[in-house]
């Protein structure tokens, strides 16, 4: 009623629609293993004493194992699950200038890292590991 009255009074009246930017929401769920596994079963894990006094390795010691490897290409994947429970194994490895675009994916990684330095410096046992080269660097000894 008000709109029709305004149009009769002001025939050249212009109305503008304002478009608001869309809002994108993401949900990230992080579950605590203690919600699923009984604390009694954690006793063996708690008994493991990490050895931080391992010799430092200045080059990648070996190839990085992964359940899913993407190399030297461009790949887009959506609506898929990636997982591994193997020790010292990454779930996803992206290497050699590859481009990986993931959307609506689940990545689940469990398993132990047997060497904390390899895990920290080279990404062994990572959920997603992005590296420049899969091959370990060869170092020639000085003679």
Q: What's the short story on this structure?
A:
This protein has helices at residues 2-9, 43-47, 116-122, and strands at 66-71, 74-84, 90-95, 99-109, 128-130.
Describe, in plain words, how this protein is organized in 3D.
The protein is built from three helices and five strands; from the N terminus they run H-H-E-E-E-E-H-E. It is an alpha/beta fold. It has a domain at 60-134. The strands form two sheets. It has a three-stranded parallel beta sheet with strand order 1-3-5, with no helix packed on it. Strands 2-4 form a two-stranded parallel ribbon. The protein is flat. The relative contact order is 0.17.
Question: What are the salient characteristics of this protein?
Answer:
143 residues, alpha/beta, 3-stranded parallel beta sheet, 14% helix, flat, disordered C terminus
Topology:
Layout: H1 2-9, H2 43-47, E1 66-71, E2 74-84, E3 90-95, E4 99-109, H3 116-122, E5 128-130
Parallel strand pairs: 1-3, 2-4, 3-5
Total strands: 5
Indicate the structural class. alpha/beta
Widest β-sheet, arrangement of strands: 1-3-5
**What letter string, H or E per element, gives the SSE order?**
HHEEEEHE
DSSP helix count? Answer: 3
Fraction in helix:
10-25%
Largest sheet: 3 strands, parallel
Radius of gyration: 27 Å
């Amino acid at each position: 009623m008000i709109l029709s009255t305004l149009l009769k009074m002001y025939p050249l009246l212009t109305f503008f629609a304002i478009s608001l930017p869309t809002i994108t929401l993401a949900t990230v769920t992080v579950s605590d293993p203690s919600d699923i596994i009984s604390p009694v079963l954690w006793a063996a894990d708690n008994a493991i004493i990490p050895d931080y006094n391992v010799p430092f390795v200045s080059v990648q010691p070996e190839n990085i194992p992964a359940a899913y490897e993407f190399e030297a290409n461009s790949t887009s994947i959506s609506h898929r699950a990636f997982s591994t429970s193997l020790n010292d194994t990454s779930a996803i490895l992206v290497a050699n200038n590859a481009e990986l675009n993931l959307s609506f994916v689940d990545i689940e990684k469990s398993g132990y890292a047997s060497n904390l330095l390899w895990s920290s410096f080279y990404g062994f046992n990572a959920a997603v590991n992005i590296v420049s080269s899969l091959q370990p660097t060869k170092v020639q000894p000085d003679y």
